[in-house]
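Troubleshooting log. The previous structure file for this entry was overwritten by mistake, so regenerating from the original sequence record. Sequence copied from the archived sheet and checked twice against the printout by T.R.
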Amino acid sequence: MSVALCAADFGMDQRKARAYAQGMLLHNQSMLADRSSVSPEDGMGSASAALPSHVRIGDGIDALRCIRSADVNLAIWRRSYPDVAIAEVILDAVDDVAMVQPVEEIATTLPDELATAGYPTAIARLLAADVATLASALATIVGVTRVSIRLDVVETDACRRFHADYVTARLICTYVGPGTQWLTAADAAALGEGAAVDSLVVRSLSTGDVGMFKGKTWAPDAPIVHRSPPILTTGERRLLLVIDPAP
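Regenerated output below.
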């Protein structure tokens, strides 16, 4: 099974780190002052005050539109998906899927692609319908008509280092396994200045959540910094969807 390559590892010299902090953090300082109330295990954080203003979370797909705001670099649709049937997919029995497609064709072409990759027909239809909905959301927000889709079984620690993507925006959803991890702007700046990862509060999307991650093309000074969760030593695997704008 292939594992998709991630963007270059996140890194900043001190000058860029300071610029990043000044650009994204001044309006967050009061919200982040009480970081001691949030532990790494809390994921999003147990206290709503700990959520930085450059991140938006909502219970509907419209929450993803918040990524259009200049001061937002991560928009999250928190949902209870996936369907139980998808969660029970036997990951050993399916292959990775990659395609570039006009958005309006995904609902009709993706079920066959998934079936060819080994997904049972009913699950292929469920997944294809969800992917088509998410692809349409990304395309509308970014203003494209074609998207690149990857549905990968991830079982290694590829992309385990914190980084920002060289894209306009990237949509990520983990159907099976632990979700993508991300850092607040404060912790991203600290990491860029040499802080140890263990000293930071690592947040996570939940399984089924949809994240719209703003990349370096859209926000060169303040992209969202994230990584795939380290799973190699845990025995866990992930079914990961990534959708990017395509030319």
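The two ends are 26 Å apart (CA to CA). Archived copy saved in two places this time.
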